[in-house]
Input
Amino acid sequence: MQPLMIVCIAEKPSVARDIANVLGAKQDRGGYIEGNGYQVTWTFGHLCELKEPHEYTPMWKSWSLSQLPMIPPRFGIKLKKDQGIERQFAVIEKLMQAADSIINCGDAGQEGELIQRWVMQKAGAKCPVQRLWISSLTEEAIREGFQTLKDQREYQSLYEAGLCRAIGDWILGMNATRLYTIKYGTNRQVLSIGRVQTPTLALIVNRQAEIDNFKPETYWVLTTVYRDTTFTAVMEEGDRGFKSQEEGQKALDAIRELPFTVTSVEKKAGKEAAPRLFDLTSLQVECNKKFGYSADLTLQLIQSLYEKKVATYPRVDTTFLPDDVYPKCPQILANMTPYAGFIQPLMANGKKLEKNKKVFDNSKVTDHHAIIPTPTPVTSVALTDMEKRVYDLIARRFIGAFYPECKFEQTTVLGEVRCEGLRAGTFDDFVPFKATGKRIVDPAWRVLWEKAPSSSPKGEGTQEDENASLPGEGKGLTVAFKKGESGPHVPNLAEKQTTPPKPYTEATLLRAMETAGKLVEDDELRDALKENGIGRPSTRAAIIETLFKRNYIKRVRKSLAPTQTGIQLIGLIHEELLKSAELTGIWEKKLRQIERHEYDAATFIGELKQMVTDIVMTVMSDSSNRHVTATQ
Output
C-alpha cells in the first residue's frame, strides 16, 4: 500500500526550510523538500492575481468611457507572468494533484490566506486541507502549531474578506483610474485612483491646504517670575492670552509694583503605566519618530526579525497578549541576556511576574497578539544595526510590561496679584496666575529608558532620545511654596502668534490612516477608531510608497507634502466616496465584519459595484473642462 503523502505549502523558501527541518524532511528535490511523509514547498508571496480587464473580454483592452463600468460577471485568477513563478507553480501543481492532504502554512493573516487559497485553486487541489496557524517561527511554535492543526474551513471568512478586498480594489481601481484618466488626464498621463490610496492622498492635500490658508492670530501672554518660578496668567477657557497689546500692557502696568500672593498649593499623587506593547503601526510610528525609518523599511526590518525567529508575527493590529502567552513569558525573559540588569529585579527570589489586564486580555486578541520577543536568544542570531535598533524597542516594551507603574507627584500652585480698579481683558481687581510641576517619585518602568542604558544588544545607537517618545516626565517645581506667602515678582508681557497645523510625517500619517483621519493621542480612543481605519497594518506602508511612485507626494525633510499633480487630482475629485478617509473607513469596517461572520461578502461586492456605477455616471455627466496639467 502506498504511504500517504502530505504536502505543506509555505509563503517563502526560508519559512519552508524551517518547517521542513521540524518535520524531519531533509531531501532537497528542487522546488520542494521531501522526507518523513511530507513534501514541503513554497510560493514567493503572490503567485496568482486577478485577471486584467482584457482577459474577460477583448472590448476592455482599449481605454474607453463607453466601456465603463467594467464589472465581470465572475472574477477569475491567473498566474503572474514570470518564468520563476511559472517554474515553481509547475512543481506545486504536480505535488498537489498527487497529495493525500495539504497543510496551508501561509502567513497567518488575511493576505496569507488569500495567497495560498488562490494557488490551491489554480493547481486544482482536491484533497482535504488543514491550516497551520502560528505567531512565530521558532521550532517550539512550529511543533505546537502542527499539534493543533485546524480544518481550513474554519478560516473561510478570512479568505472571503481577503477576496472581497482584492475584488473591491480591482473594481474601484480599474474603473476609477480609466474614468479619471480619460476624462481629466492630458498627454496620456495615467491618473491612478485607489480605494485606500486616494483618501490617503486627500489627507495630505487637505493638510497642506490648511497650512497654506492659515492666517496667524497675534495674542499676548502675561507671565511673572516669583521666587525663580514662572507663573502664567490664567485666562478664560478658550483664550490663549490677551487679544490686544493694550489690554495686556494695562494689566502688566497695574501689577508691576504690587506683591504676588500664593493662594493655593495642591499636590496630587499619580501613576503612569508603561507604554503599550507594539502593534505594527505603533512600531512604524516609533521607528519613524526616533530613527527616521520609513514605514516600508520598518516593515522589512520587523519581517526579518520574525524570519530570524527573534520576534513574533509582525502584521498585527493589537497591543495585547492572550492569557496563554503568560506562562511562556519567564522563559522569554530568561533568554534575553543582554537585558539581564533590567530583568533580574522582576524575577529575583522566585518572584512571580505581574499579570496586568492592560497587557493580557483575551477579548482584545483575535488572530494574533502584540509584537514581542520570542524565546530565541537574540545573541544567537546575526542582526544588522538597524535590526538591533528595532529589536531593542520591542524588547524594552516587553520588559516594561511587567514593571510596576511609575509614581509621580503633580504640584499645582495658584497665585494672584490684587489691584483694585483693574479692568483689563477679563480681569477685574486681580490677576490670577498658575504654575505646575511634575516630579517622578518612583521611576519603576522608566529605568528602561534612561539616557545611558545599562544594557542593550551590541550595535551602534540603540537608543536615540527614547524619552522623547514616552509620556512627558515634566519638571518638578524646585521651590516649596506655602499658601498665603507673598513677595515681589517680575512680570512680563510676550507677543505670541498662533501656529499653523503641522504637515504630516510618515508617523502622523500612519496614525491618521489608522483612525480614518482623526488624530488622537489616547490609546483607548484610538483602539475604538481602529475599526474604521483605512488600509490594513500590513498594507499602509505600501500605500505610502505608491503615492511616492505616482509622483503624488514628496518628502520635504522629515515631512510629507503633496506635489502639484497630487493637489490637482484631489481637486478634480468631487465624489466624497473616493477621497473621504471616513467613508473609506466604513468599507474597511465591513471587510473586518466579513472576517468575523458579521457581514455578507456578496452584499459588500454588490454595494461596491453600485457605488462605482454611480461614480461613472456622475463623472461622465460632468460638462466642465477640468484637467490635470501638472506632471511634476
Observations:
- The longest strand covers residues 406-424.
